[in-house]
Design a protein that fits this description.
Shape of chain A: globular
CATH class of the largest domain in chain A: Alpha Beta
Strand order of the largest sheet of chain B: 1-2-3-7-6
CATH architecture of chain B: 3-Layer(aba) Sandwich
Order of helices and strands of chain B: HHHEHHEHEEEHHEHEH
Number of helices of chain B: 10
Strand content of chain B: 5-15%
Structural class of chain A: alpha/beta
Largest sheet of chain B: 5 strands, parallel
Strand order of the largest sheet of chain A: 3-2-4-5-7-6-12
Number of domains of chain A: 2
Strand content of chain A: 15-25%
Shape of chain B: globular
Number of helices of chain A: 13
Structural class of chain B: alpha/beta
CATH class of chain B: Alpha Beta
Oligomer: heterodimer
CATH superfamily of chain B: Thiamin diphosphate (ThDP)-binding fold, Pyr/PP domains
CATH architecture of the largest domain in chain A: 3-Layer(aba) Sandwich
Helix content of chain A: 40-55%
Largest interface: A-B, 30 and 37 residues
Number of strands of chain A: 14
Mean pLDDT of chain B: 97
Number of strands of chain B: 7
Number of domains of chain B: 1
Radius of gyration of chain B: 17 Å
Low-confidence stretches of chain A: none
Largest sheet of chain A: 7 strands, mixed
CATH superfamily of the largest domain in chain A: Thiamin diphosphate (ThDP)-binding fold, Pyr/PP domains
Chain lengths: ~325, ~280
């Protein structure tokens, strides 16, 4: 099959353009990286509703809180590591505590950010965002899904964190693939093991399942784009039907999507779980491909994990 | 300000101070010093200045108030109760389980609270956001924000100061409750904030210095701020921490300590005499 690549952040930019047209209350804030986050597509077309906050993430989140209280729907973007990390208390106490309608566009998530190195590779956002009451956390897998997630975030009330990446990643969904915040979906069915992935790892999971099939292993692949609120039903059913789970995410193992899956499965339908992700370390400079290989985030790593977890059944 | 109005407002300040003492004696937890220092400012805003309606707390074109120094919650609650946002009996539930009056302001639970605060340094950013929204909506409301002087040590305050100046937010009026004290002692001993006037001027603000316990000076400053176009205004209000209660005045120790029954009785006597 022909694979088309596109950065997920492009989906964010495209959705903002649609929202600019359809919802006059949408305003966009960015911290001097609008070109990187694609917020500049919105600012070019709707300059009066774009607020450049300069390099001041904490103030940006507080300003967004004030805008939302006065009826606006602010979309706030910068690199996820600074958005979620540097302004965490502002997100917690000033936005989530009051359940304000602020949308967070966390760009450059994951180690695939590449040569900028550890300081700019967001590997903890999912953990520190999903722990917050009222927060919704979505990690879309491709540009099309990012666009849908951004539009869905605008349509719901409350704080929502959208995590997208820098690099072009394969398009694995279609315009008419259903998308609903809080609902995972099965991309490929199987009975021997469930591979639960989000973000850039969804493509790797699909690729792993194809290879596994050649060896007679039927892997179910689930796109768990929403980490919070988590789709308990799809997870419990996967555990029940397949008896073994591999989670795959471009994020720290601690507190990420895999942890969220384990929280549900361990309480409802305990089965062995293997996790693919970053194991308690920082990243480094390198090309995205080199880094994904070195840190164990490829389909080959998923295949090994799938075989390990099946052994543990 | 005519003398009749001045008399009425002074009377309000005494009622509010008495409510602060009563509620803190009852709650046995909370912050008297920085509530008493800001009493005149809140009294003026809630009883004279702001376009607000206690029967319609969410009125779209209302003026807004953000208590950036959220630990000053008692003075805000006392002002709101006296203004009719909720029954004064609620004040006796301050900081108690299931109360709508949380230790720090909670906009979800308390009618009239425009912004939840408590983590210092964040209120001015929110006030800027409200003012930006008002501009986009062509609404003429003003946003008032009260900042503590210890709070100036938070970096976000200065980020927000730049934002307000850059976006020419002349509908933002900030008050600095300049009582010179914070938990560990004098600002200048803990980590100096002076010269506050020159700092705000350098950040592009219109700066007015007043006696923060003079209702007339507060009025003049607020009116002067309205005439300034293209710049936010910082009103540096020179205040006394614990103002109105002799043994609390200028004592850092009364930042977050509440009066016992005997101390409260003495405070109420002093506030009676002043009336």
């Amino acid at each position: 099959m022909e694979i088309k690549n596109k950065p997920t952040r492009d989906g964010y930019g495209e959705a903002l353009l649609i929202l600019g047209e359809t919802n006059k209350n949408v305003v966009v804030l960015d911290a001097d990286v609008a070109k990187s986050t694609r917020a500049d597509w919105f600012s070019d077309k709707y300059p009066e509703r774009f607020i450049d906050m300069g390099i001041a993430e904490q103030d940006m989140l507080g300003t967004a809180a004030g805008l939302s209280i006065a009826g606006k729907i602010p979309f706030v973007s910068t690199y996820g590591v600074f958005l979620a990390g540097r302004a965490w208390d502002q997100i917690r106490t000033t936005i989530c505590y009051s359940n304000l309608n602020v949308k967070l566009g966390g760009a450059h998530g994951g180690i695939s950010v590449g040569p900028d190195g550890a300081t700019h590779q967001g590997l903890e956002e999912v953990a520190i965002m999903r722990v917050l009451p009222n927060m919704t956390v979505v990690v879309p897998c491709d540009a099309i899904e990012t666009k849908k997630a951004t539009l869905a975030a605008a349509a719901m009330y409350g704080p929502c964190y959208l995590r997208f990446g820098r690099e072009a990643v394969p398009i694995v969904t279609e315009e008419n693939t259903p998308f609903e915040i809080g609902k995972g979906y099965v991309l490929k069915d199987g009975k021997d093991v469930s591979i639960i992935a989000n973000g850039s790892m969804v493509f790797e999971a699909l690729r792993a399942s194809e290879e596994l099939q050649k060896e007679g292993i039927e892997a179910r692949v689930i796109n768990l784009h929403t980490v919070k609120p988590i789709d308990e039903n799809i997870l419990i059913k996967a555990a029940y039907d397949t008896g073994a789970i591999v989670t795959a995410e471009e994020h720290q193992i601690t507190g990420g999507m895999g942890s969220a899956v384990a929280e549900i499965v361990s309480r409802n339908q305990p089965v062995p779980i293997e996790m693919i992700g970053i194991f308690d370390t920082f990243g480094e400079s390198g090309t995205p491909d080199e880094l994904m290989t070195k840190y164990g985030l490829t389909y080959l790593d998923i295949i090994k994990a799938a075989k390990r977890v099946i052994e543990r059944k | 300000m005519n003398s009749e109005l001045l008399k009425q407002l002074k009377c309000k300040t005494i009622n509010i101070r008495r409510d602060i003492i009563t509620m803190l004696e009852e709650s046995k937890s909370g912050h008297p010093g920085g509530s008493l220092s800001a009493t005149e400012i809140l009294t003026y805003l809630y009883f004279k200045e702001m376009n607000i309606d206690p029967k319609d707390p969410q009125k779209r074109d209302r003026d807004r108030f953000v208590l950036s120094k959220g630990h000053g919650a008692p003075v805000l609650y006392a002002a709101l109760a006296n203004r009719g946002y909720f029954d004064k009996s609620e004040l006796m539930k301050l900081r108690k389980i299931d109360s709508m009056l949380q230790g720090h302001p909670d906009m979800k639970g308390t009618p009239g609270v425009d912004m939840s605060t408590g983590s210092l340094g964040q209120g001015l950013s929110a006030a800027n956001g409200m003012a930006l929204a008002g501009r986009l909506d062509n609404l003429d409301y003003r946003v008032f924000v009260l900042i503590g002087d210890g709070e100036l040590q938070e970096g976000q305050i200065w980020e927000a100061a730049m934002t307000a100046a850059h976006y020419k937010l002349d509908h933002v009026t900030a008050f600095l409750d300049h009582n010179h004290l914070q938990i560990d002692g004098l600002n200048e001993e803990v980590k100096g904030v002076e010269p506050v006037d020159k700092k705000w001027e350098a950040f592009g603000w219109n700066v007015i210095k007043i006696n923060g316990h003079s209702l007339e000076e507060i009025e003049s400053a607020v009116e002067a701020a309205k005439l300034v176009k293209g710049k936010p205004t910082m009103i540096i209000a020179e205040t006394v921490k614990g103002k109105g209660v002799s043994y609390m005045e200028n004592q850092a120790g009364w930042h977050g300590v509440t009066p016992n029954a005997e101390q409260a009785k003495l405070a109420m006597c002093e506030l009676e005499v002043e009336a």
